[in-house]
Amino acid sequence: MTETNNQSQQPMHNPDLRAAAWLKVFTEIWLGRGKTLKALASEWRKIIAAGLLLYIVGHVFSLYIYSQNSAIRSENEAFLRAGNAFVKSPNSTKQIASDSSEQHKQNPTQSFDFTTTSAVQSGLIDGIKSLVFVSLLFWLYFSLIGGGISYKSIIAGTSSGLIIASAGMLLTSLLQNATGSLRIAPNAGIFIVPVEFPWLYGFLTNIGIFPLWEYIAIGLSLAYVAHYRPKIGVLVGLIAYCTMLGITGAMAWIGKLITAHI
After folding, report:
1. Nearest 5°: phi and psi at 69?
2. Is-above-0.70 flag for pTM?
3. Which of 69, 223, 247, 254 has the fewest CB atoms below 10 angstroms from its CB?
């Protein structure tokens, strides 16, 4: 009888609270904390799905804002008329080949019309590409310093960082919508005229507050999971970030050379 009473007095665990505990990774990542990520690494599939969803939301909202702003549309169309053919996306400046389809040549403004299906699709593709690329960078550098963390934990930590990328897209689109200029953004693209230096502008948009914050926060979070000191996480994040800039710059330069010979 006593044993039964003791059992009835024990607090009952709320399964709903336990099921939602993994969502804390998206609040902790802002300060580079990995406590929840380490404790609930088994929820990596849910973290990846939620991270991609957050990224898609930011992507779709940003594309909608751009499509509704006539000044932004005009600036994008200037890229096409100049032959540099760049289309603004929330995450970067993407190239359209100079030998665009006849439809683009006849009606270039149609490239900037918003449709939910295409926006969600492009957001999903961009999110997956970013997730895979960034995860591979962190997996490589943590492996070089001794490992101590599974790839599942790395991709979950990287997925939590997508909320920072999404916030960056949202803030950037709101700033550019308010000012009517692609230059006004929390990145180094603010220092040049996009239509005059499209390749350089596309590269400089990656040098910004939110991309840097995302990489360092992910590094700190993963360092906690792998039992490394915080400064190791910062160092790995900075190296991964610089690697991304190097690859992005090289691709931009190669693209420029190719376009120049078309």
Report:
1. -100, 115
2. yes
3. 254
Distance CA(214)–CA(221), nearest Å, equals 11
Are 189 and 195 within 8 A, CB to CB? no
The DSSP H or E segment spanning 160 is: helix 151-160
Q: Are 159 and 47 in contact (CB under 8 A)?
A: yes
Cα–Cα dist 165/110, whole Å: 27
Helices 162-179 & 116-144 angle (0-180, nearest 10): 130
Query: Cα–Cα distance between 196 and 237 in angstroms, integer?
Result: 32
40 SS3 class: coil
CB atoms under 10 Å from CB of 212, counted, come to: 17
Cβ-based neighbours of 134, under 8 Å, separated by 6 or more? 158, 161, 215, 218, 240, 244
pLDDT digits (tens, 9 = 90+) for 132-148: 999 999 999 999 999 88
pLDDT tens figures, 160-182: 999 999 999 999 999 999 988 88
Asked whether 135 and 149 are in contact (CB, 8 A), the reply is no
Residue type, 182: L
Contact 34, 224 (CB under 8 A): yes
